[in-house]
User: Fold this.
Amino acid sequence: MDNIERIEKLLKKNNGIITTSEVEKIGINSRVLTRMIEKGIIERVARGIYISTDTLEDKYFITQAICKKGIFSHETALYFHDLCDRTPIKYQLTIPSYYNHTLIKNKNYEFFYLKEELYEVGITEMITPYGNKIRVYDLERTICDIIRNKKRIEIALFTDAMKRYAERKDRNSIRLHKYAKLFNIEDEIRKYLEVLL
Assistant:
């Protein structure tokens, strides 16, 4: 098996997406990727990230491959948790307050900054519509985020998300109250839940 075949095998395993570091990890020089681009087998979608030409581009997966500290949050997390019907207009991510990235200037993204100990609360993995794993805040963390930032969210979207959360069988009230205490929004959480439950 030559190097191109080895990379193609890895592409199949990775849903058609590969990074330079993955190629180098299996002992193949990254120049092979350039040859594969020239042959039309793959295309470069971002620095160090490639997809096979017959693969649909997974913006969620690629975003996290580029911005490794970004966790999908707020309206984007609402979408993944089925707490809203619309696909996000902008990709919303939370990053540590010290983290700086080139995507911050991109108008397709909106970033929220948090200190490290709060940034790490409630991270979970979910699957994109293209079958790739990404990091998203869990259901209760997402509810805390939209309550903390409700002035930045459309009222109809906020109200719908809260109603849907209240109707969920898999909601975890203990976890929600634990997070609310960490984010100092216990009174607000209680107020919304009293109305909805």
In short: Residues 61-196 form one domain. The two ends are 61 Å apart (CA to CA).
